[in-house]
Amino acid sequence: MEQPAPIDRDDFVMNDDTILDIRIGMLLKIGMLTSAAVILLGGVLFLLHHGHSTPNYTVFHGVPDNLNSLAGIAAGVRHGNDLAIIQLGMLLLIATPVARVVFSIFAFLSERDYLYVTISTIVLAVLLYSLIWH
Questions:
Q1: In degrees rounded to 5, what are phi and psi of residue 15?
Q2: How high is the pLDDT of residue 9?
Q3: How far is residue 49's CA from residue 39's CA, in Å, rounded to a whole number?
Q4: For the chain, what percentages of helix, strand and coil (3-state, to nearest 5) are there?
Q5: In 8-123, where do the E strands start and end?
Q6: Which of the residues 70, 77, 112, 131 has the least number of beta carbons within 10 Å of its own beta carbon?
Q7: How many other C-beta atoms lie within 10 A of the C-beta of residue 102?
Q8: What is the model's pTM?
Q9: CA 83 to CA 119: how far, in whole Å?
């Protein structure tokens, strides 16, 4: 009877890129699930407060002015405002890929891969410009 080939321990060792990919994947999953849970909470609260009313579609009502800033959203969340909670969930969803780029910068710095640090920093600058100033 033939003996099975010995198991090489190196077959089970993950390289740094695989570990980095797993961590980035977890960051994206956690960010997406957290934002979905916050949006769901805000949606349930909105339906509890406004579910019985009939919407008026003849006039467009945008987001209230107090929910157009981070301070306004934070104040609304502290007071349990359902629309502010939904806005917070949307901000978390938008912040998830930005957090991924920031995480990548630090990961590439720890690996001393300065080319990718530079590229990731440029991507972060473009993201922040498009979110804040444009």
A1: -80, 170
A2: 57
A3: 15
A4: 75, 0, 25
A5: none
A6: 112
A7: 16
A8: 0.77
A9: 37
